[in-house]
Amino acid sequence: MDSHTHSHSADGNHSHGKDTTKGRLWISIFLNLAITVAELIGGLLSNSLALLSDALHNFGDTASLGISLIARKISNRDADVDKTFGYRRAEIIGAFINLIILVIVSLYLINEGIQRFFNPSPIDGVIMFSVALVGLLGNFITALLLYGKSRNNINIRSAYLHILTDGLSSIGVIIGGILIIRYQLYIVDTILTVALGLYILWHSYQMLRSTVDILMESTPEEVNLHRVTEVMQSLPRVQEIHHLHVWRLDEREICLESHVVIEESDLQAMEEIKTELKKMLREKFNITHTTLEFEFEPCEDRLNEPCL
User: Domain 18-215: what homologous superfamily?
Assistant: First the structure.
């Protein structure tokens, strides 16, 4: 006896209305592409590794935003016979790709910074300062465009993280340019490069953990399985809960499947029990997608093998 319930997220992210996020992503892509070209030219002219690193980071931002745009478009597709849960995990996959790119970029920056430490060279601080200032302005505009949408979407948040870290790196390059102009402290360029790489690596790791947890269908951190079992079994007429699984479909929707043992005499009340369990799970644990299989005796006892 299977009972299956489902409710969609009410945040509007998968409705057929106008998606302003895509327009903001397009603007952000063009802005970051322009910054990348400017910093690449400026880095070559000034001989600044930090500026070239920032250009590389910005190119990663542009790719990141492109991936986010594609993932956003795919995720808005309706469910079909091949993808019965829909395409919402496309955004999680997009975030995963973005974060892997960030990790690779950060490791590259750290390596290049260490190499420059042993092979220092003169740097044009004026060009370094001027181009970084332009980059900071572009990053600031892009961050404003994405900030609102980043709070409730891991895909957009991963892209926003790209932009935020690049804006912070631009501030560092600006300070470095000033120090080089006034004091010829060329080692600042190396320090900035390594510091930026470490900063990106740390933030990427934190978000990568969350993304992998969703893709691996891990139990959400805020859900305690023992507590869920206790609450479900506290309901009158529920004898036992087993074969319990809780996972995230995406950032917003938490799913649950479970076997529910009831007395055979309560068969007529099965729908009532199901409704009460569904309400309890939604209110106490924010679980909105529930699949319940009702039994009169635990399947392990009946089949002499693990429940399936």
Answer: Cation efflux protein transmembrane domain (1.20.1510.10)
